[in-house]
Model the fold of this input.
Amino acid sequence: MQKDDLITVTIEDLSSEGLGVGHCDGMAFFIKDTVIGDVAEAKIMKMKKTYGYARLVRLITPSPDRIEARCPVARQCGGCQIQSMSYPAQLRFKEAKVRNNLIRIGKFEQPPMEPIIRMEEPFRYRNKAQFPVGTAKDGRIIAGFYAGRTHAIIECEDCLLGVEENQAILELVLAHMNEYHIRPYEEKTGKGLVRHVMIRKGFATGALMVCLVVNGDSLPHAEALVEKLCTISGMTSITLNINREQTNVIMGREVKLLWGQPYIEDTIGSVRFRISPLSFYQVNPLQTEKLYNKALEYAGLTGEETVWDLYCGIGTISLFLAQRAKRVYGVEIVPAAIEDARANAALNGMTNAEFFVGKAEEVLPEKYEKEGITADVIVVDPPRKGCEESVLSTMIQMAPKRIVYVSCDSATLARDLKYLCERGYELTRCCPTDMFGNSVHVETVVLIQRKDT
Ligand code: SAH
Done:
């Protein structure tokens, strides 16, 4: 087999980037725009030793799970890799992905899987969007999303995963840029001003936040834009984020208030949160509540426990837990998020939660070794790369009865669980949760318990 050959492949699985995967003559092939169950004719684009990439030429037999994507740019945009798969098929895929990673990487023979927690509606669920701003080939200023794996902007002001207000906000921003000849930032040259428009909405409160990420320290005629944005119902916070670095990190460190409050508020369950532009906040608040309730159930609190919440962000899980624990300690690397976390504890009148800024892998060992702190329950919710080994080894030394692991990457989850379960713990419950409908991502919450308790 070589480049340009035509092959026939039955798609069996999806890669972590959402490419269809199937086999031909013992070789694995990755084929974009296919879904599990498709029989596809494809043209080989690139060959490696044991696998290759091919381009879809035609569907010989479409998968019974194939549906028409609702979004007109679903195929080009990198966001919704599996909009062409029916929602039940997406859920089956996600459940299987978690189970397979636990078996293959975690070496658990029979993971104790609970049915995936599904969404009511896998559209319009995101409370946050970050639209890159750029220039189209014909010179117009556009906003949209990056095409998969590139930084070419696909024009799209109404992402079907996001809130309807996004479009009106983007139109005002682009009109302002046109009126005052404000240029979009260009990655190649590092010139131009406006890089991204970040929009967040509190689903429970209706509050809207707009944050313009700029390569400079001010926006010309900002007051005119503010006036227009304020006509949108719910507008609460308008800020500039300063990012002069030539990098693909979206946000810089400095935030300047243009109008209103420097944050918005939202509630999850009965807990109220304030959210700053730089703080992490779960993007799907409806599913987050279900996820946190699951985490709380797994934590098995009676009111007497000391609990650690590592990677706590603005203290969302911490404060959920604090409702039922004696004492909760949160650790988070972003200082602004910890400021929010402390403010959130006060906002909810909770006095039993304390927060530390720093890396989990530094704060936890330090608190344990120097101050002899203990834990009955530890909750972790790390970024995709999972926990550093030093965090895991300190947890083993602290020997909490239960560890609740919330994960957005089941491969690193399985790796970390293997480490912990080889050192005295047992995997007892596991519940995938769909927080990111139409994408390949899946969230999982897991309970492991000390074997000798
Ligand atoms: N539990 C929170 C946040 C989870 S996201 C929630 O549900 O909202 C993961 C968080 O880990 C982010 O806030 C990120 O800033 C933080 N983080 C990343 N690396 C970290 C590290 N090494 N130590 C502590 N926090 C870290």
Q: What stands out?
A: Residues 87-104 form the longest helix (18 residues). Residues 280-282, 311-313, 316-317, 331-334, 337, 359-361, 381, 383 surround S-adenosyl-L-homocysteine (CB under 6 Å). The chain is about 25% helix and 30% strand.
